[in-house]
């Protein structure tokens, strides 16, 4: 039944269009000569990367009947993201285990080449890059590009392709795509376009709402609360900027989870969380400022310190390599980063104000 549907769709969607004007037609047409399709994304894939890979794999399998493979770059540690993979049964091949072949098309989603955000390093030529990040990568000689910088989520773009091809989206795929979009749109002001909202509306009737609720409320490990406590105790405000440090970040994605919470502190409009993980200071940034270009700002700041970063208008992530893990070396990188952040945000160099006064912290421990 699946094969019959695929063929009908292939005829109506791909061959039915003579001009290949729609992006999904051009995407599918370009894949016709390949024997299979492998999807790659950024390190520690998030719901938008996962949903985009799942959605595009469904598009390729339904319309072209070709086998697909989804990859995982690094670990997935964030509790919600792990719950998404488990509950929605997403089969991921660790990227280091992939044997690259030229007959296999490689499609990069939710990331751009040579941004330092992934391990894929041009082992074979990329066929396509489908993304929405503002921070640019090296896009030369890639046959198919669909990069929409203002868009809230890559999953919205993928949903658009499924709509163009008139596909019925099954529950699992719809739930993956929906959650991928939803997670990209939190924060204020909401980073959504009409295309994002159209995609959410299109998917909603097919979404498994119980699974979404389970993912949103995934059980959190003890290390989450330890890190949160550490972040609260180390937070300082500098005018409208709040900076939190976590000296032993158990998992890199935790910086993002913490900063999502800290940005809600009244009176600030920038929050930065930095945590030491392996030999890096991992960074996550949030802002409430419209057209803040947070991704670009962080990229410039850490670029001068030998690091890499990327992101969107109001959310960014990146890292700075640490010369050693001694407390002294970490402190030096932290103070250099603080100085650069204050400068770029036009905040006068000042002593920070503790979020929670030290006296209260000590009293609470009595
Ligand atoms: Mn994304």
Describe the protein in words:
The protein has 366 residues and is α/β, with parallel strands linked by helices. The protein has two domains: 4-216, Alpha-Beta Complex (inorganic pyrophosphatase (n-terminal core)); 222-365, Diaminopimelate Epimerase, Chain A, domain 1. The chain is 41% helix and 17% strand. The chain has 13 helices and 13 strands. The chain has a seven-stranded mixed sheet with strand order 11-12-10-9-8-7-13, sandwiched between helices. Strands 3-2-1-4-5-6 form a six-stranded parallel sheet, covered by helices on one side. A hairpin with a 2-residue loop joins strand 9 (270-277) and strand 10. Helix 3 (47-64) packs antiparallel against helix 6 (171-184), helix 4 (79-87) runs antiparallel to helix 8 and helix 5 packs antiparallel against helix 6 (171-184). The radius of gyration is 21 Å and the shape is globular. The model is unreliable at 1-18 (pLDDT under 50). Manganese (II) ion binds at residues 48, 110, 132, 153-154, 184. Manganese (II) ion (MN) is lined by residues 48, 110, 132, 153-154, 184.
Largest sheet: 7 strands, mixed
Counted up, domains total: 2
pLDDT under 50 segments (min length 5)? 1-18
According to CATH, the fold-level topology of the largest domain is inorganic pyrophosphatase (n-terminal core)
DSSP, total strands: 13
Number of helices: 13
- Please compute the radius of gyration using only Cα atoms: 21 Å
User: What small molecules are bound in this structure?
Assistant: manganese (II) ion
Fraction of residues in H or I helices: 40-55%
Helix and strand content put the structural class at alpha/beta
**Topology as a string of helices (H) and strands (E):** HHEHEHEEEEHHHHHEEHEEHEEHEH
Side-by-side strand order of the widest sheet: 11-12-10-9-8-7-13
CATH architecture annotation of the largest domain: Alpha-Beta Complex
Shape: globular
Can you give the mean pLDDT?
A: 93
User: How far apart are the first and last residues' alpha carbons, in Å?
Assistant: 68 Å
Beta-strand content estimate: 15-25%
CATH class designation of the largest domain? Alpha Beta
Fourth-tier CATH superfamily name of the largest domain: inorganic pyrophosphatase (n-terminal core)
